[in-house]
Hints:
The complex is a heterotrimer.
Chain A: H1 12-17, H2 22-52, E1 69-72, E2 75-78, H3 80-116, H4 124-143, H5 173-202, H6 215-246, H7 260-277, H8 280-294, H9 301-314, H10 330-358, H11 367-390, H12 392-398, H13 402-432, H14 438-464, H15 484-514, E3 543-544, E4 582-583
Antiparallel strand pairs in A: 1-2, 3-4
Chain B: H1 13-44, H2 60-89, E1 99-106, E2 109-114, E3 127-130, E4 132-136, E5 140-147, E6 152-156, E7 161-165, E8 171-176, E9 181-187, E10 200-205, H3 207-219, H4 221-232
Parallel strand pairs in B: 1-5, 4-10
Antiparallel strand pairs in B: 1-2, 2-3, 5-8, 6-7, 6-9, 9-10
Helix pairs in contact in B: 1-2
Chain C: H1 7-11, H2 16-26, H3 28-42, E1 53-62, H4 77-80, E2 104-109, E3 124-129, E4 132-134, E5 137-141, E6 146-150, E7 156-160, E8 168-172, E9 176-180, E10 186-192, E11 200-206, E12 211-213, E13 219-225, E14 228-236, E15 240-248, E16 253-261
Parallel strand pairs in C: 1-16, 3-6, 5-11
Antiparallel strand pairs in C: 1-13, 2-12, 2-14, 3-4, 6-9, 7-8, 7-10, 10-11, 14-15
Amino acid sequence: MDAHAHAHEMPWIRRYIFSTDHKTIAIQFLLMSLFFLVVGGLLAMMMRWQLGFPSEPMPGGMLLPDEMMAPTPAGAIMLPEFYNSLVTMHGTIMIFFAIMPLLVGVFGNLLIPLQIGADDMAFPRLNMASFWMAFPAGLLMLASFAVEGGAAGAGWTSYAPLSASGEYTGVYLGQQLWLISLTILGFASLAGAVNYITTIINMRAPGMTWFRMPLATWALFITAILILLAIPILAGALIMLLFDQTIGTAFFLPASDGEPLLWQHLFWFFGHPEVYILILPAMGITSDVLANGARKPVFGYHAMVLAIVAIAFLSWIVWGHHMFQSGMNPMLGTTFMITTMVIAVPSAIKVFNWLGTIYKGNIHLHTPMLHALGFVSMFIIGGLSGVFMASTPVDVYIHDTYFIVAHLHYVLFGGSLFAIFAGITFWYPKMFGRLMNEKWGRIHFWLTMILYNIVFWPMHSIGIQGHMRRIYDPTQYEFLQPLQPINQFITMAAFALVAVQVIYALNFIISIWKGKKAGNNPWKANSLEWTVPSPPPHGNFELVPIVYRGPYEYSAPDVEEDYWLQDAPPPSETAAPALEPQPVAD
Amino acid sequence: MSWLLPDSYSTFGPDVDFLYYAILVVTGVVFVITEALLVYFVIRYRRRDGQKATYIHGSTKAEIIWTAVPFIAVLGLAFISIPSWNMMKNPDSVPADALDYIVNAKQFEWEITYAGADGVTGTADDISTINIMHVPVNQAVNITLRSEDVLHSFFLPEMRVKQDAVPGMDITVWFEATRAGAYPIGCAELCGNLHTTMGGTLNVYEAADFEAWVASQSADADDADDADDQEDQ
Amino acid sequence: MRDLFGCGRAMLMATAAVFATACGGGGGEAGGGMEQEAAGEEMASPVDMATAGGIHAMVMFEGMAPEMDAIDMASEPNCAARYTDTPMAEEVVVGGGGGLANVFVYVREGLDAGMSFPTPGGAVVMDQVGCRYVPRVVGVQAGQDLTFRNSDGLPHNINASPSENRGFNISQPVNMDTNRNFPLAEVMVPVRCDVHGWMSAYVGVLDHPFHGVTDMEGGADLGMLPPGDYVVEAWHERYGTQTASVTVTTGETAMVSFSFSEAMAANAVVPMGEPIDPHGPGAHTLAPEAH
């Protein structure tokens, strides 16, 4: 652990570019994934234009190359293959380069050492390598838009054989870059996961028992285990598909006795744990913020931990519910229906415990709290709509329709992204030393919440009317033409939804310099990250903190304030502490 | 903006629709209660300066209740779904008197072959059409679903039928329409750049009209065979 | 125009560094194509017109032309509505005078080694009208623009599956033109529309301009060549190929004639994706290409 000493003497490039400090790496991941969040959002806007106004010239479309937009006298019209690339890249970028690094890369790096009282990650250089694999992987993914044939166009799930041979799509290099980029990102994720797991197991401060860890860290720990187990499966599948594309193997090509369903099994065996990788950290963040906002202990802390573990376990035996209509044996469908229904139970436990947390609280509606409450209310919708798909006969009708699109956006946008907004706003002072603006934070929250629901709620409805997902021009189907006004309405609302995110972006940027100075503990929270300056110095803790209690001792009767720092010695022991704080060992 | 399903016109319709509405009611109740509690708690327990929140860590009784009740509810929903699922997807459930069809999917067409009166495909009385499927009403049809290139998904919204077509596999799909009329066929699985054009029409005829259609096709069956030959090249 | 990847414009979209790298790699081929064309305008044809002579091919059909099947356009009513008579398949088209149309005739061998030809600046147009390709068979020079035109106003895709060149699968949702080219010579490149199973076409790609497609009279002009002995091949999608030798003399138009009959269909070998080296000495001793 020589990295943290003499931080201020390090050259600029070591401090800000090739830094091994977990906090700097967290900020690097933050800037990277917010950039990709913006890119993914803009890709979605182009899709929405096409869906709202099919085959009408897209404003600004003339700026795009002929391989994406067809120039006509009236203006540039989106090509179907570009629409497919948008579908694919929006999903890929949002899942792998926005939500996943935001939750795991940003909060994992920022929170784990701080919340367990460690000076840094167990493997700081591996941590740096993780970012410096993830970022180029993202650039490679973006670069695929510029190659011959365009970017990958087989969906973020890249179902074979469509993805396995360029003959079916005209996309050769783009699909290969997609595979290579995700493989590199997979290594980045693995490096991060190994680091998180090692750090949490080995580097907890004295007194930081397993059940004194904040739920954010718990969730990140379980998530890291899921990543460690799931990503190798994805990487294996990606490499097999890459071989089918390039060196003539036929794992997934039926013409040479390959098996298309094998891809789906491999992909979803990774993919369903991945779904929980994208939501568990959000649940942890929400738990921390809700308890802080309600000034009350998390209701059923042990049940919350067990629910996370249960979800993680069950996530390995539900992948088949993505494949009910895929041609899998119907008997397996029944099995997966039952496991899928059961996984709703731990999610329900969490929702009820969150409600229990705010019950009889003293609720401070600060911006992070608003977003956390937004997460709970939207996750309820996303969770409940999942029950429809779990019922196999209902899934026959709604599978691959906009009902699914609505469902997954309620979980990933209404869920994960609201928790991310909560987490960024909550820990922003710990990263930058200043608070974001509250007034504009609330305005952003309410506009986002309202517009978000205007965009995605009607998608349930058009899905119920049979509107398939991933179709370039819904008006090609006569029976979908009456839904076109709703599609247009959604498109307009989606533009507004993206526009109001400018408020958050400006608030984020301006507050770095102009925000109110935060001090150590602006939210009067309990966990260890709030005992150190904002931002914490290199090495985090001056003395190794000693932990006396859990992280949610809000409004405890034993102390006057409504919060109680985890390292504050108990009143009876202030005179003679059982453990003497030790200087940080070099 | 409706949560009501469009009308269904197959024997699967009542089952699927009943399950959908049953889940809608159950989830709807949970939705209203949880969201109402959330809003109520936020208002009722909003910040009061100088006052502390009630110091509660949890309740084992509450945990047991809200573990057990959802568990029973979702398992109940799973079990009432099983019979319909078996009826829809289990090849053993196909009625013995079902008419045989082959639906061959390819980028971006549905090649639909009716086996004819002999019930055997590959014989002279086969009738092949592109993108248009002709079936009689109140008569089960047994489709062998195939694909010759990539994945497609055979979607008959009003019949509550959806099944992916997988190259290299023969998948059994069956349904029985309960009302004559013309209904859409869609492709529900992304299958390439013009996936969006892969639609078709399902014509459900009264028995007599179906016979008439078969007769009209048999009249120029020779032409149809020639057309097949040409396609094979 | 293979400036595709519109590197300049794509750069507006994202960080310049990334795209500069990507364009450097992926777009290199495209840039090469453009340079070739630019150079082509300056480079004069190596054929000395003062000494050149022409080749005219006549392709006749012997016997009764086979009856073509009707195309069932029921799945695309918008196209079906454009025909007053039932549209018929166009695999074999025989003119009133017995000429066989849509035969690709080209100089296969005999050009002087080292002779290379500028890429023509103009594009060859293959239109889609009434859900059919017009013309059904075209010849282009390697690198020359081939414009696929959608005049139907409904979605078509163009799926080309060459063997020597890289294939493409592009779509045209509305009335529009899309340009592509094939940098390598091969005979022939099959083209089809996946939305309308009956739509197919063929493109012959050569390193030289001495090729033509027969009209309804069965005639095709192969252009002006230096005097010498040449092997000319005629290619038909159903009846396969035939070759003939022809001697070109200054100021004369050498006639070469072929005749096909329905009997040839049974044993026909119809080359697809065969690389053509017009300078090659040997007759049909082409190195087999693994594909």
